[in-house]
Amino acid sequence: MRMILNILIVAILGWFVFNFIGNQKLKGNRLEVADFNEAIQVKNVQLIDVRTPSEFKSGHIKGAKNIDVFSSEFKQKINELDKSKATYIYCRSGQRSQKALKIMLKEDFENIHDLKGGYMTWKSNQN
């Protein structure tokens, strides 16, 4: 009976770590505008706008490369990036960039950060 209880405890702890802490990793990669803006000022970072090309053309953060998360070529294009290099992503409001973040983590990106609130929040904080 004690062995079954120990196995059950280990299984519950494993589930907790996998589901709760794994999800915290995704949330921990979201940056506020000030932190995001400071981070992208550093040379040698990858800045990716995951919105549509028309949204990108209507305005974007200087130095950003446009890779539409809903494009059929999204995975192919992100896999051309350096997965070990600091990568900063954003979309309009933060929803699509969360989708992109999950995909990029599955594709083994090591250092990826998402702009909380997206381009709308970034733009409203620029003077």
pLDDT below 50 for ≥5 consecutive residues: which ranges? 15-28
Helix content: 40-55%
Count of alpha/pi helices = 6
Task: Give the overall shape, derived from the CA principal axes.
Answer: globular
User: What is the CA-based Rg, rounded?
Assistant: 18 Å
The count of β-strands is 5
Taking strands numbered 1, 2, ... along the chain, how are they ordered across the largest sheet? 1-5-4-2-3
What order do the helices and strands follow?
HEHEHEHEHEH
Mean pLDDT rating: 84
The major β-sheet equals: 5 strands, parallel
Structural class: alpha/beta
End-to-end separation:
66 Å
Strand % is: 5-15%
Textual characterization of the structure:
- InterPro entries: GlpE_sulfurtransferase, Rhodanese-like_dom, Rhodanese-like_dom_sf.
- Pfam families: Rhodanese.
- This is Rhodanese-like domain-containing protein.
- Residues 41-127 form the Rhodanese domain.
- With 127 residues, this protein is α/β, with parallel strands linked by helices.
- The protein is 50% helix and 13% strand.
- The protein is globular and about 65 Å long.
What characteristics describe this protein?
127 residues, globular, alpha/beta, 5 strands, 6 helices, single chain
Please sum up the structure shown:
By secondary structure, this protein is an alpha/beta fold.
Tell me the layout of helices and strands:
Layout: H1 2-28, E1 30-31, H2 33-40, E2 46-49, H3 53-57, E3 65-66, H4 74-78, E4 87-90, H5 95-106, E5 112-115, H6 118-124
Parallel strand pairs: 1-5, 2-3, 2-4, 4-5
Protein name: Rhodanese-like domain-containing protein
InterPro entries: GlpE_sulfurtransferase, Rhodanese-like_dom, Rhodanese-like_dom_sf
Domain Rhodanese: 41-127
